[in-house]
Write a structure and sequence with these properties.
The complex is a heterodimer. Chain A has helices at 20-27, 83-90, 100-113, 119-126, 136-150, and strands spanning 2-5, 8-11, 46-49, 52-55, 68-70. By secondary structure, chain A is α+β, with helices and mostly antiparallel strands. A five-stranded mixed β-sheet of chain A has the order 2-1-5-3-4, covered by helices on one side. In chain A, α2 packs across α5. Chain B is α+β, with helices and mostly antiparallel strands. Helices cover 29% and strands 24% of the residues of chain B. Chain B is built from 20 helices and 33 strands. In chain B, α13 packs across α14 (447-459) and α16 runs parallel beside α20. The chains are: A alpha+beta, B alpha+beta. Chains A and B meet through α1, α2, α3, α4 and α5 of A and α8, α10 and α19 of B. The structure holds FE2/S2 (inorganic) cluster (FES) (2 copies). One FE2/S2 (inorganic) cluster sits between chains A (94-99, 131-133, 135) and B (124, 388, 438).
């Protein structure tokens, strides 16, 4: 089977019916997408599927066929960081940063569908993402920054 | 500036490395497991206290000569164990350890590359950055010019572990001196070359130059072909704090870009050629015994190997999907042993106490004469660290040597666990710890690494074991639960007259009340813990400070006194007084509040960190729903190395503490963890985050202390006291409002 990840088509093996997360991490060696819970409860594994942030841990790889998948590795274009990554870097958000990929993907997906979300809308959209180090205020600041730099 | 060559307490001459007598072997300090086990059995000592039972053993003698061989030529300054440790730990430690065991070093090689070696590890506290700042400052280079090698048992000197907020206070001042010593060595080398005095020389960006004659030599030129090393000069002149340009500023996380582009490799991301994915068979209940096993179905799956070694059963497969499936195909039966449940937790802890609390006659008497008394019992539940990256280990055997990568706060401890497990000499075991997905005190052990090593040994290929979230909840360890009984009495003038406090099971850290009381007694009493328990941020201080600060609040409210004023009347520690006063004024303690809102405060100190927290809560008069509106935390931990990262640590601590304060609790019933998932074990999320403010008090005159622990202690009692303020309810348990409502 073939899937489209970060603008490239990849042939993958789905005989054991792997999740999209397993395929990304093990077959395509895109390990930026993390495992945190396996039950769509933490957001660590979020990737964009046709522009929407989805938990790759409960997404069967076969269901990704024909969809455009973007992972954290796909946000940087031609050596240039995505503006949201730029904002996270500038705000120096993270501690252990294990949550970083999921947070950034969720934020990118949010800002793509709503260029200027209110504080409440940001909280609503991000509530599925856990940062166990609790860098939430810094993440909020980075999203606010990305939003204004985009506007 | 003094030359480091012939001055100083150690007065140690510069030595050409190869000429150095091979007298000092690298000692290894290890936990004496047998002794510890005995202590555990007798007194129920917890892992959080294992540091008390360390004994030295002679490890493989790694000589200074071999260190240099490994590093290549250059100029270095090193620290020995007695340089690094200070205070009471050092006393017990150096008695056991060779004083000249190398503890860390800084090395400039022939290319001018500056590398620091320390056994400490990065778990998200951003010490890689703050330590690099200190070194860069002394060496007149940029932070990016400093490379840190951390937590690698082959390359870095022995370290007991990264815990207890010790990295900053122990390492930062010492690396500062080591870096300054290297700088002086570089200057002395240049001075020799130019036949001048080193005091006349200056430095900029990796270059030593003579200000008047224009001569310049880069660090690379100076270090090239040299083999110079010197023990850190204690009296070396360091850059004064007032002149800091790099240290003390908000330098961003080193390698920050790797983390936001997904390119940093955590252990769970690592892959070796031909690596297999491993899974371990777990009992469905804690304490269950395997009675029958049928692995025949699993064995039939292509690519799957089943490994059986006594009670240890595991599978490996070329991909994790298949490994998971094969594990599910194993038919196992288990004998269940009755286990205590959460319902009986606190009576269990009391009934199984290892001794009766001591009674002190003077305290008894003071109580008998007390004018007003408060007696309270506090229940503190188990909580889970549940770091976002679950335990992970990767192991590879090569020519009888074992390589393990694992996320642990104690790589050398894991090396010892592996030594015990496989009966292999330490110099055949290398443990590495890439920056990990955090720990909070929850990753002191090496389970996943050991499991991976067992599987790898059996199948003859590298194996990676990534724990699932459920495994992390069920088989890692918890923050201890505790029952705390407190009695406090006031005299006729409203002054504290008597204080008594017993902590069953959660630990002795922070049990000492900071307040002045003429008659007091406090005691930690160990008990039988139903769940596996160990270190957690600030250890038992969270529980003990919760109890102390709640009772202080209630004693004030008994007499209608302002809790701030009441505390100040009994507080003589100047640092704590200041942080409490400043925090309260930042919060606006005196300001008017609505009738449905309450203010609460709490303070305390842990390991050189002084903290006060003020909370504002709203309690819905109808539904009794509690909402934390605002938390203001003041923190003073000596000199600030990186304000932004310090603030981040404080905030992280406070907000993580919010979980344990309001709703986190491990629920268990007869050997089953009932909420072993993020969908059922609630941790703080965006929606839970109140308005937060952090006040950092910089004390450049005092040595810096760690910040990963202390700021957590005030959160729960401040919220509890704020709820009491508005409703009169005294909630004496943690979590305070698991359902979100009072008494629901
Ligand atoms: S791993 Fe997918 S949401 Fe947690
Ligand atoms: S920074 Fe550690 S989980 Fe977010």
């Amino acid at each position: 089977m073939k899937i489209n990840v970060n603008g490239k088509s990849h042939t993958i093996n789905v005989s054991a019916n792997p999740t999209l997360l397993e395929v990304l991490r093990e077959q395509l060696e895109l390990t930026g997408t993390k495992y945190g819970c396996g039950e769509a409860a933490c957001g660590a594994c979020r990737v964009m599927m046709d522009g929407t942030a989805v938990p790759a841990c409960i997404t069967p790889a076969v269901s990704a066929q024909g969809k455009d998948i973007t992972t954290i590795e796909g946000l940087e274009k031609n050596g240039k960081l995505h503006p949201v990554q730029e904002a996270f870097l500038e705000e120096d958000v993270f501690q252990c940063a294990y949550c970083a990929s999921g947070m950034i993907v969720s934020a990118v997906a949010l800002l793509e569908r709503n260029a200027s979300p209110s504080r409440e809308e940001i909280i609503e959209a991000m509530n599925g993402n856990i940062c166990r180090c609790c860098t939430y205020p810094q993440i909020m600041a980075a999203i606010e920054k990305a939003k204004t730099s985009k506007a | 500036m003094k030359s480091s060559l012939s001055t100083g307490r150690h007065d140690e001459p510069v030595t050409h490395w190869d000429d150095y007598p091979l007298r000092d072997s690298m000692w290894q300090i290890k936990i004496n497991y047998k002794h510890m086990k005995k202590q555990q059995d007798e007194n129920h000592i917890f892992p959080e206290q294992y540091e008390l039972f360390e004994k030295k053993i002679a490890g493989s003698p790694i000589t200074r000569r071999s260190f240099f061989k490994r590093m290549g030529a250059g100029i270095a300054s090193y620290l020995v164990v007695s340089d690094i440790l200070a205070g009471p730990i050092a006393k017990s430690f150096t008695r056991e350890a060779a004083e000249d065991t190398i503890g860390a070093w800084i090395h400039v090689n022939g290319e001018g590359r500056i590398t620091c070696y320390t056994g400490k590890v990065e778990v998200g506290q951003n010490i890689r950055t703050s330590l690099a700042q200190v070194v860069a400052e002394e060496l007149f280079v940029k932070v990016e010019d400093i490379q840190f090698i951390m937590g690698d048992t082959l390359l870095t000197p022995y370290d007991r572990g990264t815990f207890g907020s010790l990295t900053t206070p122990q390492m930062a001042p010492k690396l500062r001196k080591a870096a300054a010593s290297v700088r002086e060595l570089l200057k002395a080398t240049a001075a020799k070359e130019w036949n001048t005095s080193s005091t006349s020389l200056q430095l900029e960006q990796g270059i030593v130059f003579h200000p008047s004659n224009g001569k310049r030599l880069s660090y690379a030129q100076l270090a090239n072909g040299k083999k110079l090393a010197q023990r850190v000069n204690e009296d070396v002149q360091v850059v004064p704090v007032e002149d800091w340009k790099i240290a003390g500023t908000s330098v961003p996380k080193v390698n920050g870009k790797f983390y936001i582009t997904g390119s940093h490799k955590y252990v769970s991301d690592l892959k070796l050629p031909d690596m297999q994915y491993g899974k371990v068979l777990r009992p469905p209940y804690l304490g269950a015994k395997l009675t029958s096993l049928d692995t025949s179905d699993a064995e039939k799956v292509q690519g799957v190997r089943v490994v059986k070694d006594g009670d240890f059963v595991g599978v490996t497969a070329p991909d994790s999907t298949t490994a998971k499936m094969a594990l599910a195909m194993i038919n196992a039966e288990w004998e269940r042993k009755k286990q205590p449940s959460r319902k009986q937790l606190f009576s269990h802890l009391k009934e199984n106490a290892n001794k009766q609390p001591d009674k002190k006659p003077n305290v008894e008497e003071a109580f008998a004469n007390g004018a007003k008394k408060v007696t309270s019992a506090f229940h503190v539940d188990y909580i889970a660290h549940t770091p976002l990256e679950p335990r992970a280990g990767l192991a590879e055997w090569k020519n009888g040597e074992l390589n393990v990568w694992t996320g642990t706060q104690r790589p050398f401890g894991v090396q010892e666990e592996l030594e015990k497990e496989f009966g292999l000499a330490k110099d055949k075991i290398r443990v590495r710890m890439p920056d990990t997905g955090s720990g909070y005190g929850g990753k002191h052990t090496g389970e996943a690494g050991i499991e991976a090593a067992k599987l790898a040994k059996a199948i003859g290929k590298p194996v990676k074991v990534n724990w699932t979230r459920e495994e992390e909840f069920m088989w890692a360890y918890c923050r201890p639960a505790g029952l705390i009984e407190v009695r406090g009495a006031l005299d006729a003038n409203g002054k504290l007259a008597a204080w008594e406090m017993f902590n069953y099971n959660s630990g002795g850290a922070g049990i000492e009340s900071p307040y002045d009381v003429p008659a007091k007694h406090q005691q930690f009493i160990s008990s039988d813990t139903p769940l596996r328990q160990g270190s957690y941020r600030a250890l038992a201080s969270t529980a003990n400070v919760f109890a102390i600060e709640s009772v202080m609040n209630d004693l004030a409210s008994e007499q209608g006194k302002d809790p701030m004023e009441f505390r100040m009347e009994h507080l003589s520690d100047e640092r704590l007084r200041r942080v409490l006063k400043d925090t309260a004024s930042k919060f606006g303690w005196e300001k008017e509040k609505r009738s449905d809102r309450g203010f609460g405060l709490a303070c305390g100190f842990v390991k050189g960190g002084y903290v006060a927290t003020c909370a504002e809560v709203y309690v819905d008069p109808e539904t009794k729903e509690v909402k934390v509106l605002k938390l203001v935390t003041g923190f003073e931990c000596g000199a600030i190395l990186n304000p932004r990262h310090l603030k981040s640590q404080v905030l992280g601590c406070v907000l993580q503490g919010l979980g344990g304060a309001l709703f986190e609790a491990v629920d268990f019933d007869n050997g089953q963890i009932l909420n072993a998932a993020f969908s059922s074990y609630r941790v703080p999320r965006f929606k839970d985050i109140p308005e937060t403010e952090v006040l950092l008090i910089n004390r450049p005159d005092l040595p810096p202390a760690g910040a990963g622990e202390a700021p957590i202690i005030g959160v729960a009692p401040a919220i509890r006291n704020a709820i009491q303020d508005v409703t009169g309810e005294r909630i004496n348990k943690l979590p305070l409002v698991p359902s979100g409502k009072i008494r629901a």
